[in-house]
Amino acid sequence: HQLEAARTAGADTLRLFEELDDPRGQGQAENLLGLIAKRTGDFEQARQHLQAALAHFRNAADHRSLSIARINLGTVEYDDENGDLIESNRQLQEGLAGARENGDDRGAAEALNNLGVLAHKQMQLAEAWKWYQEALGLQRKLRNSYGATLALTNLGEIAELKGDHTLAARLFVAAQSLFNLIGSPYEHYAADKLRHVVAGLEPPDGKERLRDIPLDEIIEW
User: Fold this and answer.
1) Full-prediction pTM beyond 0.70?
2) What pLDDT was estimated at residue 205?
3) Which of 1, 5, 31, 94 suits 135 as a labelling partner, its CA being 20 to 30 A distant?
4) 12-21: per-residue pLDDT in tens?
5) pLDDT of 176-200, one tens digit each?
6) CA-based angle 131:137:143, to the nearest 5?
7) Terminal Cα-to-Cα distance of the chain (whole angstroms)
8) For the residues of 147-183, what is the DSSP string, one character each?
9) How far apart are CA 31 and CA 20, in angstroms?
10) b/e per residue, 46-73, with b = 16+ CB within 10 A?
11) Residue 22, by phi and psi: left (phi above 0), alpha (psi -120 to 50) or beta?
């Protein structure tokens, strides 16, 4: 119901910006409609809206928004099980380059995280680790607690896939603690991941020992 209301509002906004002949506004409305379509699983519609957004942002010479739309388009390709992963990588890389050129650290961090997700989906674990670690560094620079904690969780998942349960447990402990501090429901996800990897730790009291380590030290480690 909320998504339908958002879609209606987005379509109404798009018509208003078309009447005003405002390409930047049209791009923002198309970008929003693309994200709504992606959320509902209508990937073809999402592509059409986001491609339209790219054209409008180019017309408006709005390079920062152009990079954001590229990043969104890249996520559509990897979320769609029939998507083009080569195209996903191209759009994310171009989005990252554009964000860096425009000094948009938040956009760059988003692109880095999504490049990590793309590599993660393809089980390119070393590549995913590199992207997630770079995203973590940028999120810490931005002092974005949520973004940094998400990166820690992603790194924990890669460590778990690589079979390093001790490292994964350290990362999930840090993520759970930070999600708790910022009041995020993702704390439960991190806690579940932690329980799973702790089961593989020797000796069994590994979790207690990890919890004794100061949080800052865990994050630095």
Assistant:
1) yes
2) 46
3) 31
4) 999 999 999 9
5) 989 999 999 999 999 999 999 988 7
6) 135
7) 44
8) HHHHHHHHHHHHHHHTT-HHHHHHHHHHHHHHHHHHT
9) 18
10) bbebbebbbbbbeebebeebbbbbbbbb
11) beta
Q: Report the distance separating Cα 7 and Cα 27, nearest Å.
A: 15
Q: How far is CA 142 from CA 103, 107, 108, 127, 204, in A?
A: 12, 11, 11, 23, 37
Q: Which amino acid is at 18?
A: E
- Spans in the chain with pLDDT lower than 70: 202-221
The two three-digit tokens of residue 202, written as one number: 């020797």
Cα–Cα dist 136/101, whole Å: 20
Q: What are phi and psi of 199, to 5 degrees?
A: -60, -25
Residue 166, both tokens: 């001790």
- In 3-state terms, the chain is what percent helix, strand and coil (to 5)? 80, 0, 20
Tokens of 146: 């949520």
Neighbours of 202 (CB within 10 A): 8
